[in-house]
Please model this.
Amino acid sequence: MNTSVNTESLRALDQAHHLHPFTDFHDYANNGGRIFNRAEGVFIYDSDNNAMLDGMSGLWCCNLGYSQDRIKEAVFEQMKELPYYNNFFRCANQPSVELAAALAEVAPEGFEHVFFTNSGSEANDTNIKLVHRYFDLLGKPEKKLIISRKNAYHGSTLAAASLGGMKAMHEQAIGLNYVHHINQPHWFEVSEPGEDETSFGIRVARELEAKIDELGEHRVAAFIAEPVQGAGGVIIPPDSYWPELQRICDERDILLIADEVICGFGRTGEWWGSQTYGMKPHLMTFAKAVTNGYMPLGGVLISDTVAEVLTAGGGEFAHGLTYSGHPASCAAGLATLEILHQEKVIERAAEHLAPYFQDKLQTFAEHPIVGQIRGRGSFAAVELVRDKETRERLAPESGAAVFCRDTANNHGLMVRQTGDAMIMAPPLICEHEHIDLLIEKLGVALDATAAHHGVA
Ligand SMILES: *Cc1c(COP(=O)(O)O)cnc(C)c1O
Model:
């Protein structure tokens, strides 16, 4: 343990020199943040040595927690052997080759190829270029439009933010003019009064059909979606939603891109969210949990349908990153996959963690400020309201959820807030006792939030 850390001076340096992502710079310069400098198992420790249960797996990536020595050692060993070499110009390195093969092994049937990036955002940028290239090679160069969804999150590079449907991000950067958005399957937020979840799911799915007709099928190249929207607020789609979307994709000449950056590697209970929801994508984006968050790595898994066209000839694919297939990142990915296989983490989480977690969350079903509890596999959201019937919000501008999150944080639980929802994605290696602790601390935060906003 590093006891020599001087929190006060570190915080001063941080506020003076460091601009943080997705942060109000003015607010941060005045108030600063919490500095973390160590972690163990599923707990993170701040510079004053306060322990917090990590209910978010870092940023949805440390699914195996923080103490996986095998991954750390694999990275160090690789650094000693070959710390860097690129994959351009007819070159390759062993870990990137082996990881590509290992990912093809765990991918759904019909996926044999991988393109590596350093992040999910870059992988989605890559998707756009792959899709455009695919239709160019097929002699359909007019197919360039991409359809996505409001409140989707596909990353924060310019192209990925365009694909995403985050209002605040669109307001600060001019998006790509060939990306169009339809509604999200967020029943609690978007449904009409009296509309049940099944008919709502079908209605919003059919917006894709209407959008394709409006834009012209001969111009639409792809539809991109997260099986479950993560950053948007763990939006669990109605069961009727994905089968209807799949029908539309099957009938139309468009590609389906599944952004599996959060859902992939076990979050929904199977290896891929696409499997949980019966989706048949042509491209799958991955990142985050592929290295358990220890090293930056992302990429695209490419189905044989697309790969056959791309590899049939037609010249160079003009795209790549200096660190595409970085050997140390790929070594971390290989070690992560080994742990997932050998310790049956995904199967165990589906059987042992997910049902317990979802069941325990129902403790709050009758809580006066809880409007909806939604979850699947090992993630969930709790929607805060003032009135359960009318879904009236507890405070304007998501103030109540921010208060609830801060209270939880101050009581040793790391959870996030999105809009008026509290969101959770605990590490897949959590034991029941960790879930009990999460529920206890979330309960304290919910009670305090109700009291603070005058709800008994
Ligand atoms: C986090 C995320 C991304 C972006 O990944 P980065 O590595 O942050 O660029 C893309 N898609 C989804 C679904 C994500 O959750």
